[in-house]
Amino acid sequence: MYGMIHRGLRQMVIEQSGTGAWSEIEAKLGTGTEHLISGQMYDDSVTLAMVGTAAERLGQSVPDCLTEYGRYWIRFAERGSCGAMMDFTGKDFLTFVDNLDRMHMAVHAAMPEAIVPSFRISGRDEGYVRVEYRSERNGLEPFVTGLFEGLLDRFDLEGTVELVSTDDNVAEFLVRFSPA
Amino acid sequence: MRLEIGSDRLAELFPAYILVDCTGSILACGPSLARQMPQLTAGSLLTDHFSCGGAADCASFPELSRAGTRLELRSHDARIFLTGSLLDTAPNYLLAVRHLPPRFSLKANDLQMSDFGPDDPTVAGMLLVGLQQAMLEDSLEIARELGRERQRSAELFHHFSRVAGYMAHDFNNLLSIIQLNSNRIAGEATSTAQTKRLAKMICETTERGSEISHSLMTLSHQRQDARTILEPDKIVINNLQFFKTIVGPRVKIELSLNAAGRLVEVSRIGLINSLINLIVNARDAMPDGGSILISTDVRSNTERSASEHGGAADTIVSCNQIVIVVSDSGSGMSDEVLANAFKPLFSSKTGGNGLGLSSVLEFAREMGGDARLDSSPGVGTSCSIFLPLSDAASETPKVETNGLGVASKKNGRKPARIVLVEDEPYALEALTELLAAQGVEVAPCSTAEEARAAIAAGGCQILLSDVVLADESGVALARHACEFVPNVSVILMSGYVPSSETLDESWQFIRKPLDSEILSNMVAAALTSFSKGPNVT
Fold first, then answer.
1. Least crowded by CB within 10 Å, which of A117, B54, B275, B361?
2. Which residue, among B90, B94, B74, has the nearest Cα to B82 in the 3D structure?
3. How close is the nearest chain B Cα to the Cα of A38, in Å?
4. Which chain B residues contact residue A88 at CB under 8 A?
């Protein structure tokens, strides 16, 4: 995954447990600042090792850590250098999710080696939306759950995110929401 | 051809469309314009809100639609720029236009992805620019982080260096006192054989203690030192006594210097520390004694130093270099040890810190050269340092006389006079006694101030001073002595070599803890030099 993911994880660990906690993680993994270059692609094994070690350090299971990191990622991205891109992608929950693929296409154009996910709204009605999530990577559904929860917060909505089905590389989420 | 399209689909394909009648009155607009220009109301004239390039007025609409002329619209407040086609949708006209941002920066616009049609390439362009800007911002932040980390590391290392230097200096002073007085005990005529043996044990133990402090200094003294033009042959000669204090009495140092007058531009401290590291390794390879050869030569060929010889992997050694070789006749290295010898923290010695050879390689490469090892088990080891030659003239500062000092006469008939400066009272006492036993007059001083007074009193031929004094640096004192007595010999005592820019090439150094025999020899040599005339080194 690209380095910005690592930077977000680092910031989350630091905010929760201090810079010493992140230094411990780096020492354990043998990683350093060179693994935090935003536009640089790193092997997934590096990212997964960081997440696993961070989960251990934070006293969480890996899935719980992924979910929390998904929520945190939205805040991290909107506060940071990607804030303008997020605003451009959409100013409400449905528009944002609907435009995610177009946004990821631009990421892929800039970083051809990036493995980008796909999100497609497969159904919607008053107060809910069904989203199909496709990715070549496995096991990131908890992270996606956190992303949706983070987006609900971003757009001042209350709601729930439920993984209703998984099949091959496709997972379907049901997101219920209402104004906060 | 007639095409029917619903308003929803039209809004999806052209979010910024405008529908006008034949008088130019606005009938409807797309959701993007509705959001960005709420004043764009039905019934208002198009020209009330936009300047229309390519269409002077709506009377030209029929012709424009037939000709397919490209429309360009600019809002009167210059925030919105639209471009597209005019379509005849009789009885009305459809301006099938899209946004054309004057700047592709996401932050400079109020535009969103939904303001563009599904296949509008402008979206990809703006996202790419946005991504590029985001990466650039992050790169700048990372560069700042790396800079701060480097600064913190440098500060920490500087602090550590200072603390280690002070500790090593104080420790060496104590060892020096112990060693000097042990030598005094051993030298006493009334000492028994047992006493002399015990004194010798004390001396050997202080030597081992000294190695610990010097390892600490090697670790901590990798600070930035100014590069100066110097002559390696002279460096070796001037520090020979210093090197002899390192190897001890059982190891002999021989020289084969063939680069006289040839210069390099390197860190003086780095070069001396590198030689010290190599000499220590050579000594340790010969626990039963032996000889170390220090040689210099000039290379004018291009050779490839292959990794099988233990050097940096496949290094090209380029032309015009001085090579300094330190060779021993010790046990040599196995292939496995040779292959790893330059790696940091690798050591084949019990208790070794593994930093000596790696620091030698680091120094050589930082100076634009390289290092290489050659070894055969049972035969010995040679380490070569390659340094690029410099064409510059030596910047050896000349000692100036200001006419105030009166140089002692070369062939003075008074006893030779040494101004001895040492702020450790026990060391001062032991050294005074040692030197007096050689038949020289000693002016013992515990401060630089006392030393200046002793120099001013006249007759000073040798200044023997600790580098670190309580009230002034020994180096500054030495400079003063050279100005006052132009042909004075300077011997500085220290646990480490001070920074390059403060030194004179003619000065000698003796390493602490002091070896009485070596010090005596240095003093004797200095006295001989003084008697022959000025500036003979």
1. B54
2. B74
3. 6
4. 106, 111-113, 126-127, 130
Give the model confidence (pLDDT) of A140-160 as tens digits: 999 999 999 999 999 999 999
Residues 6+ away with beta carbon under 8 Å from B253: B240, B243, B244, B247, B279, B291, B292, B293, B294
How far is B40 from chain A, CA to nearest CA, in Å?
22
The residues near B25 (Cβ < 8 Å, ≥ 6 apart) are B42, B43, B44, B45, B46
Interface residue B428 vs chain A (CB under 8 A): no
A107 to chain B, any CB pair closer than 8 A? The answer is yes
Q: What is the pLDDT of residues B223-279, one digit of tens each?
A: 445 688 889 998 898 888 778 877 888 899 999 999 998 999 998 878 888 898 899
CB contact (8 A) between residue B113 and residue A85: no
Identity of the amino acid at B190: T
Tokens encoding A138: 């496995």
Q: Which two tokens stand for residue B452?
A: 């200046």
Q: Which two tokens stand for residue B43?
A: 């019934």
Rounded to the nearest 10 degrees, how much is the dihedral formed by the CA atoms of B38, B43, B48, B49?
A: 30
Chain B residues whose CB is inside 8 A of the A81 CB are 133-135, 137-138
Helix (H), strand (E) at residue A69? helix A62-79
With left for phi above 0 and alpha for psi between -120 and 50, is residue B248 left, alpha or beta?
Answer: left
